[in-house]
Amino acid sequence: MTERATDGQVWDPYGTLRRVLWIGGGQWAGKSTVARLLADRYGLTAYSYDFHDARGHNDRRIARRIKLGHSPAGPDPEATWVDTAPQDMAAETLAGFPVRFEWALDDLRALVSGRPVLAEGWGLRPELVAPIIDSPRRMVVMVPTEAFRDRQLRELPRAAGVGHDLSDPTRAQRNRLERDRLVAEDAVRSARRLGIRVIEVDGTRDADAVAALVADHFRPYLPPAEDRKA
C-alpha cells in the first residue's frame, strides 16, 4: 500500500513524485530507449525501474523472502521457468508489482531535481501510478505488437533467453514470452480503464519517432524549447 502522509496525501517530502512523468507497459517495447532519448533531449532526470529493481532492491527482496519464510536465494529457476504455466507466472508477477512499486517510490522520493523526472519500467503499472498523479497525461503505456516483440528477440542479445542452465531452455523461453504477453495485455486493459494513453509499438516508427510521439504526449510538463539540451 502506498505510504500516506498525515493529511492523506502520498508522502512526498521533496515534492518529487508530483513532478514525475511515467512510462509503463510491456517488455521489449523500447521504453528504456525512449526514456534515454527524452532525458538527453530535454535535460530530464531519468529513473530506470528495471535497473533498480534488479540491482538496488535486492537487499529488500531477500529480506522479504526471509520474512515470508522463503529461501533467501530465491525460487528455483527450473521450477520458475520450465515447470510453471505462463498464466501462473503472469499472476505471480502481477501480484508482486505493488510491493516492488513501493521500493521504486522510495527511490523517487529521495531524488531532488530542478528538472522533471521521467520514470520508466514494466513494473510502473497504471493502476499503481494513477492514484498519485494529477492527470492521466502524466503517464503513457508502451506495448509491443507480436511482430515487434519477435524482432526484438532476434536483435537484442539480452532477449534471447532466460539466462539459466535449464533442462528445457526452449520451453522456458516460450513460457517467459507468453508471461510477458499476458502481463502487457493486463497493462493495456488497466490503462484503458483509467484513461491512460496506450502506444502500440509496431516497428514502423524508429526510436526517435516514438520518442517524439511520447514527448508530444508529455508536452505540458516538458521544459520549453529554449531550455532543452542539444
From TrEMBL:
Gene3D superfamilies named in the record: P-loop containing nucleotide triphosphate hydrolases (3.40.50.300)
Protein name, UniProt field: Uncharacterized protein
Lineage per the UniProt record: Bacteria, Bacillati, Actinomycetota, Actinomycetes, Streptosporangiales
Stored SUPFAM superfamilies: P-loop containing nucleoside triphosphate hydrolases
InterPro entries in the record: P-loop_NTPase
